[in-house]
Design goal:
By secondary structure, the chain is an alpha/beta fold. It has one domain (21-84): DsrEFH-like (Hypothetical Protein Ychn, Chain: A, 3-Layer(aba) Sandwich), CATH 3.40.1260.10. 27% of the residues lie in helices and 25% in strands. It is built from 3 helices and 5 strands. It has helices at 13-19, 49-54, 68-77, and strands at 3-7, 25-28, 45-48, 64-66, 80-84. Strands 4-3-2-1-5 form a 5-stranded parallel beta sheet, with helices on both faces.
Length: 85
Amino acid sequence: MKTLYILNNPQLFEQCTLAMGTQDALLLIEDAVVLSEQQSSDENHFVLEEDLIARGLNSGSSWNKKNYNEFVALTLEYNKSVSWL
């Protein structure tokens, strides 16, 4: 079952990524977007672009950026979503 993990707490990054399977994806939101500047990404790692902008962060990271509409579309691509708060 494909799961979208939505992370807003940067302190839970390691725990969250350890729980992920090979078909799962990760979306960084809110304060967790700072991790896009510190961690490497792969094709299933996403970051919410509006939260990058709100925090004045460089949107040139290697993470795949999604806007709010794309965030909603992303949730429809996965069987379930799990929020790490």
